[in-house]
Amino acid sequence: MSAVGEERLADALLAARLCAVDPGLGGMILRGGGEARDLVLAELRTGLPGWASVKRMPVHIDDERLLGGIDLAATLARGAAVSRAGLLAEADGGAVIVPMAERLSDAMAGRLAAAIDGDARFVTVALDDGIEAEERSPAALMERLAFWIDLSHDRHSGHGPGAEVPQAAAPEESWTPDQIRDDGEVVTALVAIAVALGIDTARAPLFALRAARAAARLDGRAAIAEQDILLAARLVLAPRATRLPTAEEAPAEPPPPPPQDYAGEQEQGSPAALEDVVLAATLAALPKDVLARIAAGTARDRRATTAHGAGERRKSGARGRPMGARAGLPGGGRRLALIDTLRAAAPWQKLRGAAGRVAIRRDDLRIRRFETRAEAVTIFAVDASGSSALARLAEAKGAVELLLAEAYVKRAQVALIAFRGTTAELLLPPTRSLVRARRALAELPGGGGTPLAAGLRAAQQLAEAARARGRTPFLVVLTDGRANIAADGRAVRAAAVADAMAAAKAIGAGGVQAAFLDISARPGPEGAALATAMRARYLPLPRADAATMHAAVRAVQPR
Amino acid sequence: MRVSFPFSAIVGQDEMKRALLIAAVDARIGGVMVFGDRGTGKSTAVRALAALLPPIAAADAGYQDGTVRKGKVPVPFVDLPLGATEDRVVGALDLERALGAGVKAFEPGLLARANGGFLYIDEVNLLEDHIVDLLLDVAASGENVVEREGLSVRHPARFVLVGSGNPEEGELRPQLLDRFGLSVEVRTPQDLAQRVEILKRCDAFERDPAGFAEMWGRAERATVRRIARGRAALAGVVMPDAVLGFASRLCIAVGADGLRGELTLMRAARALAALDGIAVVSAAQISAVAPLALRHRLRRAVLDETGSTARIERALEELAA
């Protein structure tokens, strides 16, 4: 196991202890990690008081169980209302473990966030098994948890807490965060680092301050020392960075005047010096993928949003067009179909010896079914190579913009893949945000070879991923069809054409709906052949402007 | 109940505070939409305002089933969670009583609880469209009509709708946006001193909520008085024809869709005058509230990059010249 991995695990264990000392830190996101996560959870368990309960929150928990409500099955069995406390209430003072946090719906995340903001005090540990950069825990939840720790590169097994980690001092019952005096300087330093790293939320420096205090307390010190600030900045602020500090802004920024109440005590050096030390340490701790994440944008794709695009139909228990009823227990968004329930119970009334009121058993319950439309995702794969001359690229961009605007009106999602040079790049993961789409388009560069195979493969992967999440993909490929870069990056034309054809056939076999827009000045047979292999509508548009392209795609788009 | 962060202690965000105060003075404005990033104090401000307002008569708050209620209750503040079902929002058959006692009873939903107070929806842009439609309909009519599962119930549901969201994560349909009276854009201040101050106040509040609230009690009471005076003065504020003309010219100049913009602009200007103790509305109030009332109603190409606020300011300058 690598030294970096050891360090991350040590960080995670430390974060667990800090959370146990001060549940106000909210908790942590643990990304990946396999068995190493169990160590972290065990560490948290030891830190919490003995009476505290640690609850695991299943992904498909319903509202009644999460927040408390009537226990329907027990109510029916007993004939009197039976209510039970929710899982979050039971975990008060303890911890809630959220497995598969990257699949957590925004609605669930919203409820958790409301509970964290509310009176309940529990530590939340979100276990995030996401692999792709865009598979992340819901932003509303991440925002409220102090620590984001990525263990994903570790395959840890059977390793106890490392020797370099100091053993946790059991927190005393009476302790509250007040007892540790902080220093105006600390506040200024943490805020300055947040600003330098482009962290906008006010919660981040607040968490950092709490973490520093908890760290000091863990070491049995009464005041925050430099190492506590370093720790807090590394654990809380570094993972949230959205940009790197620019050269002139990092060290040279004049510190604001120190607050009056601490003006006299300057033993720890000037605020500027402290900031610099901490900022340097924080930068060193920036995760390697942070730049990739910054490039990808922080907004998570929205998979739990409304289905109002033109997608395939699917059954749903919560909304849509009514489809009749079936047996089942209401709850979790499923609604009781009262009339059908009564109808199911009616024939048995005499046998059940009902006197006065209707005797309904659990088996009689019927729930309503609805039909909704799955959300549509339009995936644009745009050829930005040199052979698709620059003017054509501008037109393609124009057409994509028009389609984007329309997808927005239809509440569909859009994604954008560009291929040029030797690779294909996902410029815009599926989103409904016009702001991001516009930015991605504006940044679309042109020139280089035509790695058509890579572009088609990327498009297919994205389409399959969208389908796996219950969305309906629609693929729009804009290219001149003249592949000259093979799938392995070699500039061999024959191999490039063969690879492109294979990729096109794979799309055809996958059954993804597609349209192939041939934007070359003289559409040749290559484009038509590829379109046939893809089972896509072929639209040769040699002299089309943006508006014509838009109209053409619109005409073939599924409705 | 937990102590709320004092409204007066919120650093900066003057536009948001002003919009909320205007909505508190005149509930007919039609709600406030707050756009901005997480952690900019959106929900803190809304909660703070609700906690600040003096208790109202029990007969005007919460679910009114026709029985007479006496006394005063705090202003309701209801958080509508993302993913709330229609049942929870509008109310539904009381399952417990239907199954247990065989009684057909109505279990009031969140709309009933919000009556007389605030209904706050974080991330309104991610809320299911049919729930948003329903909310806006009730917010406009002030009454919730339930016709389902054999129930036929209608009850008052007058509340100030406050939505918040981040446009980076999906946008709100224009027709829904138009239903919000005022819209505010909040940003994290980039000024170091201001952010240090925010952190200090939040920290002081977290350590000793009651003591911190006490410290700001004076400023809070002044705000309460200002709102009360504003409400009392609202009916008497005069709106001269010349100012109405100015408002109309402004709406035409920026290309604001529909009459709702003009109406909101007028009401907001009047509420602002009442808040500030001014008897006659002038162009100054119109200019002050114009970005709030109009910025989300401008007709624009969806991919247009020019900010709406800039367009309104330009139009104001041209009209003043």
UniProtKB/TrEMBL annotation, chain A:
Domain VWFA span(s) in chain numbering: 377-520
| Compositionally biased residues, Basic and acidic residues | 301-315
Keyword hit for Acetylation:
no
Enzyme nomenclature, EC number? 6.6.1.1
One Pfam match, given by its short name, reads: AAA_lid_2
For whether the record's keyword set contains Ligase, the answer is: yes
Q: Which GO terms describe its molecular function?
A: magnesium chelatase activity
Kindly state which keywords UniProt assigns to this record, in alphabetical order. Answer: Ligase
Disordered: region residues: 158-177, 244-269, 301-327
Q: What is this protein called?
A: Magnesium chelatase subunit D
From TrEMBL, chain B:
Q: What keywords does the record list, in alphabetical order?
A: ATP-binding, Nucleotide-binding
Entry superkingdom: Bacteria
One Pfam family from the record = Mg_chelatase
Q: Which Gene3D superfamilies does this UniProt record tie to the protein?
A: Magnesium chelatase subunit I, C-Terminal domain (1.10.8.80), P-loop containing nucleotide triphosphate hydrolases (3.40.50.300)
- GO MF entries: ATP binding
Which residues are in the AAA+ ATPase domain?
Answer: 28-308
Name its pathway.
Porphyrin-containing compound metabolism; bacteriochlorophyll biosynthesis
- Role this protein plays: Involved in bacteriochlorophyll biosynthesis; introduces a magnesium ion into protoporphyrin IX to yield Mg-protoporphyrin IX.
Q: Which family does it belong to?
A: Belongs to the Mg-chelatase subunits D/I family.
Q: What is this protein called?
A: Mg-protoporphyrin IX chelatase
